[in-house]
Amino acid sequence: MANESRPCPCDIGDRFDYGGRGQEVQVGHIKAYVCKAPASTDKAVVVIHDVFGWQLPNTRYMADMLAANGYIAICPDFFVGQEAWKPSNDWASFDDWLKTRNAGKIDKEVDVIVKYLSEQCGAKKIGVIGFCWGGAAVQHLMLKNPHLKTGVSLYGVIRFFEGRSNLLHPTFFIFAEKDDYIPLEQVTLLEQKLKQNCKVDYEVKIYPGQTHGFVHRKREDINPQDKPYIEEGRKDMINWLNKYL
């Protein structure tokens, strides 16, 4: 069962020692990390960070991976200048910290980013992916944002948007079998609700033996037993985006 005293998933995992191939830009009121594909493209992906914020090297690594696969990738600071969560913070303060960082209140920022991608980067088809806090944000956006074509939610915290499943766009949900923060009962319930209410393509996939954050917080070089699942999760994410963008 989820550990209620640590309401969020978050052990930072293996922090990647990674500098990034992209650059930081100012987009309206938001800072963002942008990495462009080697060849020109009209397809873009918004990357929504976890509680550790937009500067986490692991998340930039994922953005660069998307760029290498032919997308303009942008990871904005959805905390808009507020401090990201630090592993050294006191977990008892997490709920208060979260109150000013609501995964369901990022619409204004998303609109600014979509406008930038369309007008400055020539993007015509835009998708979104997100991890943990950002995975919940993806579900929120797939329920209401008309401009995004598809989404991939990676271990998005289900309890943020329980009970809402009438998605507007094809959405892929990645979960870990041994996630201490997202119990499998919640995943089963989400699947049932999607089956009842969802009119668009969706997929819910549980990766055996994996823990929260495995796709972006585990380094495959030091977790050989997990490597096949880390690679599979990343490949599945790219394949989903390729299919719907």
Write a concise synopsis of the structure shown.
Helices cover 33% and strands 19% of the residues. The chain has 245 residues and is of the alpha/beta class. Strands 1-2-4-3-5-6-7-8 form an 8-stranded mixed sheet, sandwiched between helices.
Question: What topology emerges from the helices and strands here?
Answer:
Layout: E1 23-27, E2 30-35, E3 43-48, H1 57-68, E4 72-76, H2 94-99, H3 107-121, E5 125-131, H4 133-144, E6 150-154, E7 171-176, H5 184-197, E8 202-207, H6 214-217, H7 227-244
Parallel strand pairs: 3-4, 3-5, 5-6, 6-7, 7-8
Antiparallel strand pairs: 1-2, 2-4
Textual characterization of the structure:
Helices cover 33% and strands 19% of the residues. Strands 1-2-4-3-5-6-7-8 form an eight-stranded mixed β-sheet, with helices on both faces. With 245 residues, the chain is of the alpha/beta class. The longest helix is centred in the C-terminal third of the chain and has 18 residues, at 227-244. The protein has one domain (23-244): Rossmann fold (3-Layer(aba) Sandwich). Mean pLDDT is 92; it is low at 1-7. It starts with 22 loop residues before the first strand and ends with a helix.
